[in-house]
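pasting for the record
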Amino acid sequence: MRKRYSPQNLLFIAVVLFAIASCKKDKTVTQTTTTTTATPTKLGLYEESETINDTVYREVFITVIKIGTLTVPDSLSDQVFDTGSGGMVIDAHYIVPASMITANGFNFTGDSTVVAGTGITITNQKQDIQYGDDNNSTATVSGNLCYASVTIGVTNGNIVVKRLPFFMYYKSVDNKGNALPFHEFDVFGANSGYNLTFPNNAIITSPFSYFDPGTGLTKGFKLAALGTSNFSDADEVPITPNVITLGLTADDLSSTSGFTMNQLTNDPPYGYQPYVPATVTYNGTVVNDATVLFDTGTNVDNYLEDPSLKNSNTVVLAANSAVSVATTSGFKYAYTVGAFDNFTYVENPKYSGVPVSIFSLSFFFDNEYMLDFTDHKLGLKAN
């Protein structure tokens, strides 16, 4: 698994009605104030693809154009848009001076420091994050809790989140301890879980959860069904506009919206992870009491966890294998494993170390996704 308060357009209309009670000069003034609901904010994504040996690998990226007062270089501004994690994670290289970065941490003394000329605060709160679909693909990034004003989205359509807590890392290694390329794990974790918690009670979670969408809207976002037609392998991939909607309306949250809502539960210290209880079936084998994650950050492969699998090795499902998911809330999703797509692996969580079945970016081609940060609900809708 690879792994932001702007002025709102609030409109207040004051309508003053004057009623003359009689021909006398006395008059009664009645004032009525109508508050107009804010308009949801739209953001785009870059949808990139690459074909290798007939297999199409796809990823979606969101742009972070400023961190503090620093304009992020174009080559570093795109982050993997990841519904599988919560919190902005970015490599420090080329963001802060090289003299501040060592293999063992950031070079400063005291509780925190403000990086000159950037407005980025680095605290002395350190942590590690592990990314991966199972024990065999785990990578570790090491870094610190940071704060800055962050601008998310392209120049003509973005939001600003003031003093966003995020994680900036100084080192990333694979499961054998080998150093990984700089910015290999720059991730925009969009979900409501906590990527990290710190001793000072700070958390790293979705930048969207810090954005005030405006009057009458609920904190949260919708992700439109992506399809496949906008994915491109061009040198300069055009942005697909309006893929993300920030701010949920009453209609979005209505039972008539078409979304199947799943109530999330708080799992300290991990917050409201977007895990959904379900039944998973593959080739006639039924896994009851499964937990599933729909993850834009996993770009090709699906991973099914089956505690009854009597095999310590990962089983690869053959082409034409049938897979289906039925959540306890009534949402259903099914696909067939193809020769070059929907690759699916079955693992015993005892050996994989992961108790959650992961459905990759392919799920989002034909389905809509919604997160309500206020009431902690996850919505799914077949498109």
